[in-house]
Design goal:
With 227 residues, this protein is α/β, with parallel strands linked by helices. The chain is built from seven helices and eleven strands. It has a single domain, classed as Spore Coat Polysaccharide Biosynthesis Protein SpsA, Chain A, CATH 3.90.550. The protein has a seven-stranded mixed beta sheet, with helices on both faces. The chain is globular, with a radius of gyration of 18 Å.
């Protein structure tokens, strides 16, 4: 069965931790804004994909300037974000009608591969959810006010995006009341009673959060162009 495929790209970062006045999704990475790298990754996966881009309304002007400067004219649906990531995703979902699958992805994960995107759609078509995740590389400890305790890292995963869902499932999930325990789309769906399916992500699929992340992302991009 063929499902219509959507991508909902959430780009509401402010650049606080990266110590930049410019929102981190608009910072330059190898000659173009981080956000453009992210969008181009989805179009490399499929030219037919339907993309909804969620931005703070104050950033619409910057986005239009970027499109003009970099001659980016793909048919993207623009939607204004909310006060939180939860509200921004909910707003973005309102722009999508009908049935299908939606990959919800951070605008500041520019190195996502076509293979990861494709796997998320294939698995979500079967399981209704497919969330990218990677194994921990280092030891971890649980802490409280007075003590620390070693944990079995094999039981834990670091969660990434894309987080891909059946559209009707995730739209229904986002009707619940927002609370601080729901830090991503998987936690929203889980809170609504749905089972979450994980699949193997990639250590290269980094999220640009700090200045060091930009350096790593640039090095990874350069290594790809040399191979």
């Amino acid at each position: 069965m063929h499902y219509k495929e959507y991508a909902l790209i959430v780009a509401g970062g402010k650049g606080t931790r990266i110590k930049s006045k410019l929102p981190k999704q608009f910072l330059e990475l190898n000659g173009k804004p981080v956000l453009l790298h992210t969008l181009e990754a989805f179009y490399r996966y499929s030219e037919q994909i339907n993309i909804v881009l969620v931005l703070p309304e104050d950033d619409f002007t910057i986005w239009k300037e970027i499109c003009k400067k970099y001659d980016f004219n793909k048919p993207i649906t623009l939607q204004k974000g909310g006060e939180s990531r939860f509200q921004s995703v909910k707003n973005g979902l309102e722009k999508i009608e009908g049935d299908g699958l939606v990959a919800i992805h951070d605008g500041v994960r520019p190195l996502v591969s076509e293979d990861i995107i494709g796997a998320s759609f294939r698995l979500a078509a079967v399981h209704q959810s497919a969330v990218a995740a990677v194994r921990l590389k280092e030891s971890i400890r649980m802490t409280d006010q007075d003590n620390t305790k070693a944990m079995d890292r094999s039981r834990f995963r670091l969660i990434q995006t894309p987080q891909t869902f059946d559209l009707n499932l995730i739209k229904q999930a986002y009707q619940i009341k927002e609370d601080t325990s729901m830090t991503d789309d998987a936690s929203v769906a889980e809170k609504s009673g749905h089972v979450i399916s994980l699949f193997e992500g990639s250590y290269e699929n980094i999220k640009i959060t700090t200045a060091e992340d930009l350096i790593v992302a640039e090095a990874l991009l350069n290594s790809k162009t040399k191979t």
